[in-house]
Amino acid sequence: MILLLVVNGKVYMHDYSVDAWFRAIGIKHPVSHISGDNCCSFGNALCVEINNSIFAYSLGEQVQQTTIYFSSNGGLSFKEFIYENQVGLLLVNRRKGMFLYSEHPLNRNLGLAFDYNATLHVLLPPGLRGFLILWHEKTLLVSPNSGQLIKTVQVQQGPKVLYESFSEVDVSIHSITANNHELALLTKEDTLYYGSLEFLSSSIIKLAGQNLWSPEAALMFSGAGMLDILKPLPDSAFPAFDFQKCLLNVQATLMDPSLEVAKCKIELLESSSEGHMYTIDMNSRLNLSVKLIPRLGTSPIPLVMVSNPYSLGLQASIYEAHNTYDGNMVYKLDIHLQQQHHWGRADPNFTSSIKRPTISTLTVDIANKEISCVDMKPLSMLISVGCDLEKKIIVQNKISACSKGILDPVTLQENYSYVIEKESYDANFQGQKSEEDLVVPYPYKELGCPRLVYHDTPWKPVIELWRRAAFQELVAAEFVLREVHGLFTYSYSKTASSAGCLRQPQNWTSVLQAAPSPRKPFSWNRENYLSCHDSSNLSALDWPDAQYQILGGLTDNEIIFDQRNGFYIFQLSIVDPYYSYCQLDTTFSIYVYGAYPRRAVPAEVTIILLVSSILLAVWLAYLIPSQRHAWDGCRLCPSLADLCSRCRRCCGCLAAKR
């Protein structure tokens, strides 16, 4: 825990763990107030946890004319807060105000109008995301949903409602504090009020007089039902202050019969999920459960709520699980969570953008819970609708070059390297021939034995999605490949036209030109991917014969390798923005085999020589038999005496015949 104080327009921090004071840096203009989430506020001071978000500002000024500072490290340093996608307060007239929103879908409507007679302080109770407490001396309002609905706080005495609104009570609020289910306020008339923060209705009761008030008194909850009242004690001989700390046990105080407080109807409300953070990735679900034990003879109604229903949807069911030893019924509450987009029950205009990660709080509470339920706080779980960091992808490797005996794994591990021909790669990934061959060491430790691919067969990698050590599914989303060393001896089976593109598709050339660093491994990803099948994009299809370089998805696009045997090391990136919020990518290797060696003689010369050989063979086939018949005729001449003379005469005979 740390303590933040505003002194003379500056913010100071005291860290209890090291017992040291620090002055916050980054604040250039004087501020008068600080606030934040998960904080205990008293006066111009906050008790916060070190990682909480803090705002510093001057109260009562127009938003456009003041500077708001924001800290994400508990108040150690601040920077100017940019007004973007935030909640704003609109003053309709001198008596009415309402909240307005700049983020879809809340920007379609204004919040409910409420009385607005003075500058209101805003208190954010810790653990209740979206819950607001708006207060001034004569005003006390609460909102369970970031200002969309503004409710008054009732003043009760026992089961009776004395005042529907605190503003009807003739007192002035001096100090106020809250935790995740309790509210306490001290008035200038030296009265102390205590109540509970409810999502349906909030109420407070007046506690017995305690003689607590002083102009410097402040309130603070140190635990459930434990309220601290701090008062400074000046010392005339020393400038430092001591503090008088009065501890009030609210649970014991509420047992006073004069307060007529009803007994709590809940004996147990618990869940092993309470206080944890969970992640729901795109197309994923989350199942949680809560155990509920009501007091015998009562039937409390549980409330299950999310702070951001535009992004996160839920379905809850309750059933009887078993009985306790004393006869009470134990109920089980099952909660199923999924992105609102995928429930199919909400109007598309209601849901927020599915491409954008969001955060939400799941809260489980009891409707109209009695004030006496001091230690029965709401159960709260933080739900991140975003990237599940436990997910990863791998490329299937059922047939490797080692298992088929083409490569030796022992050899690959012994600092093995291979050569990429200069006419086959471009280090700048532009498809131009290089000036020299490239010697590449094979990283067996990272890639293992390469997958085996036959060069004459169109090929596409099979991608598996894993979470932790469990296989989830085969990935059918769109993805892209890039050879890490710039090899370009492959092409794609589809063109922009045959892939059914409505606009010119992206390719590696256009993506790398737009990337700040062309050698960045995955400069083409789900963030900058633009589908050529999107009918809302009106750009033209200027080059329909250009290669379509996206694999997976709705098309059956594949890789076709040139006549080259050897290694390829690919980087693979899922670019489909609707598959996962994670940047899913991996690196793998393949070995292409079965290609005939390249011809040393050009194909045109080979064809000419082949045709010439065929014609020569035909001519010889005709010439040799005819010569043989002529030879047989000459051999019958009787004047031949010996072999030589017979040959001469045969030649003469042939000459005579011609």
Characterise the protein shown here.
The protein is mainly beta. It is 11% helix and 37% strand. The strands form 11 sheets. Strands 13, 14, 15, 16, 17, 18, 19, 20 and 21 form a 9-stranded mixed β-sheet that branches. It has a 5-stranded antiparallel β-sheet with strand order 3-2-1-6-5, with no helix packed on it. The protein has a 4-stranded antiparallel β-sheet with strand order 4-7-8-9, with no helix packed on it.
Mean pLDDT: 84
Secondary structure class reads mainly beta
Q: Report the sheet-strand fraction.
A: 35-45%
Rg over C-alpha atoms, rounded to the nearest angstrom: 41 Å
Number of helices: 7
Helix content: 10-25%
Unreliable runs: 636-640, 654-658
How many angstroms separate the termini?
122 Å
Subunit arrangement of the protein: single chain
Largest sheet features:
9 strands, mixed
Number of strands: 43
- Any idea what the shape is? elongated
Keywords: Cell membrane, Cell projection, Cilium, Developmental protein, Differentiation, Disulfide bond, Flagellum, Glycoprotein, Membrane, Signal, Spermatogenesis, Transmembrane, Transmembrane helix
Subcellular location: Cell projection, Cilium, Flagellum membrane
Family: Belongs to the CATSPERD family.
Protein name: Cation channel sperm-associated auxiliary subunit delta
